[in-house]
Amino acid sequence: MVRKSIYILFALVFFGVIAWEYKVNILVWSLPKMMNFLNPIQENIPTSWSVGPEEATKDDRPNIILILADDMGYNDISLHNGGAADGSLQTSHIDELAASGVWFSRGYAANATCAPSRASIMTGKYATRFGYEFTPVPDPARFILTWLAEEDDAELKGRIDREVANNLPSYFDMGMPTEQITIAEVLKDAGYYTAHIGKWHLGITNGMDPQSQGFVDSLSLAGSSYLPENDPEVVNAKFDTSIDKMVWSTSQYAARFNGSKPFAPDKYVTDYYTDEALKVIENNQNQPFFLYLSHWAIHNPLQALRADVEHMHHMSGHNLQVYSGMIRALDRSVGKIIKKLKELEIYGKTLIIFTSDNGGANYIELEDINKPYRGWKISFFDGGIRVPFIFSWPDQIEAGGKFDDAIHHFDIFSTIAAAANVDIKDKLVVDGKNLLPFIRNETFNKPHETLFWRSGNHQSVLHKNWKFLISVKENARWLFDTSLDPFEKNNVIDKYPKEAEFIESLLVEFNKKQSEPLFPSAFEAPILIDKYDGQEYEPGDDYIYWSN
Prior knowledge:
By secondary structure, this protein is of the alpha/beta class. The protein has a single domain (61-547), classed as Alkaline Phosphatase, subunit A (3-Layer(aba) Sandwich), CATH 3.40.720.10. The protein has 15 helices and 20 strands. The chain has helices at 2-21, 23-38, 92-99, 114-123, 139-151, 162-166, 183-189, 242-249, 269-283, 306-309, 318-343, 382-385, 411-419, 436-439, 497-512, and strands spanning 63-69, 102-104, 107-108, 159-160, 193-198, 217-221, 234-237, 255-257, 289-294, 302-305, 350-356, 389-392, 401-403, 407-408, 450-455, 458-463, 466-471, 476-481, 523-528, 543-547. The strands form five sheets. A nine-stranded mixed sheet has the order 8-6-5-9-1-11-12-2-13, with helices on both faces. A four-stranded antiparallel sheet has the order 15-16-17-18, covered by helices on one side. A three-stranded antiparallel sheet has the order 4-19-20. Strand 16 (458-463) and strand 17 (466-471) form a beta hairpin. Helix 5 runs antiparallel to helix 8 (242-249). The longest helix is centred in the middle third of the chain and has 26 residues, at 318-343. The radius of gyration is 23 Å and the shape is globular.
């Protein structure tokens, strides 16, 4: 009996050690199963979008469509530098949209991560004004990121404040404050029908959901899969990076309509959102509408339709083929929207805005997605915040325009309000500018002299032609003269100390006017500026520590 107990104890210790050694792999394997058990996904349910009048109203205000890509690099569209895969992937429909209006060569995201950028787009101001500084991390992901950081043997390691991490609010309680006025609320109050499709990322409960923030109808992303991983129509690409492991392990194929329980879409998510957007347009063609089509594409997990990947066999590497297939689907979405508007003869009176929430990500191990700019999503080098930015409004904006002055995500709010003839002056605090007078050459001023970015430890300022960046705890500073060095290759901070000191003083004053974060940062990750995640740090490599 004693001997048997010893054997059992030995076995428990042995398997316990093995389980702890491989805890991340076990968690990554088990999490999808646990989530599907705890949060079961229903079969697909039909959507019931609101239907507008049968006859066209006399309201001549424009329809407004905001198409937001996720994690799209500057070089992912062929309009910029030839496009992905050395120009072998052509985004013809996105290029067509640009040709019908104006594209902005210096369009900047509000932040280098998803949620704060989206908050800025929706409110027309710096998200740090109201404390929405960091991107909420789902509860299971905190454990994965913590354990992965502990196992990391790289020279530059992530930093975790365990006490803060253990006391963070639930993911469901972290979102944009309800008192913030969104562009959807402004337009709804002005008589527009408003619809949201896709990613929200600004809160789920307690009045933070899309319908509580101005949208009449909302079809929301409720999982991170484009199709089930084992679907015969999908091709997957996985990476040995912390964020990719986290996304795959928490992945579900799910959506919600107007607060419903999660259900499975009926096709590849990018196409599903697009086809639902066409229903919105069809149903509301006779009244002014605002459609916020917020694609999950091309965020990881990398999943593309097999039919799209088959067009990419000329490209080198499986991962690039899958990524390019995802871009092809996103471009197809833009093409379908244009086609539908033309069929309904409302293309000319529709303002379409296309952009991305931030630059391309380092954790998908593709080198050229932000080319020719340095840096990635999760850094304020231009690769992280320089994004595609296009306005099309054929009846009001001359075709074939190009605008080279710096603009910002928060300008979208003011421009949309002006296009819809909604007066927000003296009613709302906004940081953005109405861009219409600038692109129509009605003024020769620049929209902005100075722009700021902040995410805890990492901050940046663009002042005229000077770009200043800082990683605070590391006391690392960069200064670039963008008129001579647009690609941020030559740090001239030692050459121009007075200029650097002045610009940093602007940042200090800016920070004084911002709010404390609504929730703290528990994680700080090292980000190599010129290498993707997984490549080894070498002495002399530029890096920052990103707070989130």
